[in-house]
């Protein structure tokens, strides 16, 4: 019998601080939204190929009958988003549970579009277009992400769960909350990092496992794994990064070594090496 899934996305609790009211920051940053994901370029050639494949698939999926005044800014702003490894983690997680790439590709594109939309909204004060145009286009990118995800292959119930996962992770209890709290000076680095990079990577990995047909245990393992990888990527190399590396390594032990090796070959070894070889520098 297939497992019964709850539609409430469950964000794993970090061992380093409690959830709830974020810690106050002693210094108040400028009142501007920062990007959801680091804009640092990926060093792994495999990861770069996967990233560009996902972006190309996203652009090809735009409706052909869009009015040019809508299609042009959407294409431009989707392409302008800085690289992120979160969508690739969705595909890697799907592979780890035995799923095929076609089951998770639309979810990976949706994660990419969420990232692009947050980038658009965060840069409106320095936009090339009129702020209203960029805001509306960012909203259109968000909507298109959910449209792509809902049309993905696989069990409709699992697709629906993936929709809820991404909505929860990027909304008022996730990336958006982290960005706004950071802009208002209400949260410190680790708390903000968990809401932004941590939640996006966590839900991306969970969605890959869900759509790949993973068990509840596999979904939760990969959800936690994604969180720890996102926390490592979202901040500087410090004492906490070593803790997250150790935690992430533990979550991989429940998967077949052959599948882990295959996922490295297909989607780059960045997510694995950082957890097993002691490398915690950004990629």
Percentage of residues in strands: under 5%
In which range does the helix fraction lie? 55-70%
Highest CATH level, the class: Mainly Alpha
Structural class: mainly alpha
Overall, the morphology is: globular
GO molecular function: metal ion binding; prenyltransferase activity
Keywords: Magnesium, Metal-binding
Cofactor: Mg(2+)
Protein name: Geranylgeranyl pyrophosphate synthase 7, chloroplastic
Explain what you see.
The chain is mainly α. It has one domain (45-276): Orthogonal Bundle (Farnesyl Diphosphate Synthase). Helices cover 63% and strands 0% of the residues. The chain contains 12 helices and no strands. It has helices at residues 45-60, 68-80, 86-96, 101-122, 131-150, 156-170, 175-183, 189-211, 216-233, 239-252, 257-267, 270-276. The longest helix has 23 residues, at 189-211. It is globular, with a radius of gyration of 18 Å. The chain starts with 44 loop residues before the first helix and ends in a 7-residue tail after the last helix. The relative contact order is 0.17. The model is unreliable at 1-9, 15-44 and 276-283 (pLDDT under 50).
